[in-house]
Amino acid sequence: MRKTATVLLLAISATLSVSILLTGCGYKPMTAYTENVFTDKIYTEVEVYLRDPENAVLVKDAMNEAIVSRFDAKIVKKSEATTRLWIRFKNVSFSPIQYDANGYAVYYRARVNLNVRYVSPKKSGSESVSGFYDFPIEPNAVISDAKRFEAIRFGAQKALDSFISRMAMRGEDL
Length: 174
Hints:
CATH architecture: 2-Layer Sandwich
Oligomer: single chain
Number of domains: 1
Number of helices: 4
CATH superfamily: Lipoprotein like domain
Order of helices and strands: HHEHEEEEH
Strand content: 25-35%
Strand order of the largest sheet: 2-1-3-4-5
Helix content: 40-55%
Shape: flat
Largest sheet: 5 strands, mixed
């Protein structure tokens, strides 16, 4: 019984200490800064990349997920939106980054470059962002469609994370 009380007391004091530390140092969640740039009703549009039209769906899903989870905002119809985002693929590239003893590429890096244009009542502009994703393949093989889509999806998510971070920095300046 005494051990339980001691553990409970330690847990409470640790929680209290962390709370005081975070509020004392001026910590604010990212949404506090992005609210200075974006409103809570956002519409996204992804321009179809003609070389990989399937990727438009992947990027739109990744952006919508990021808006809900990181901006703490809602995805709405174009007519209801107070903030609009347009996402365009600039390019997608794959390059080998590791070879085996026989000289075959066994690791590739996918680089996804996006342009995100945004318009809101508080601020508008355009950002070029990029993300990359490293992935293995079998020696003396080609990159499969499944690996390619996976790499583009994760690279696009990282590029969108970069965009969100930039927007948080822009919001801090306001």
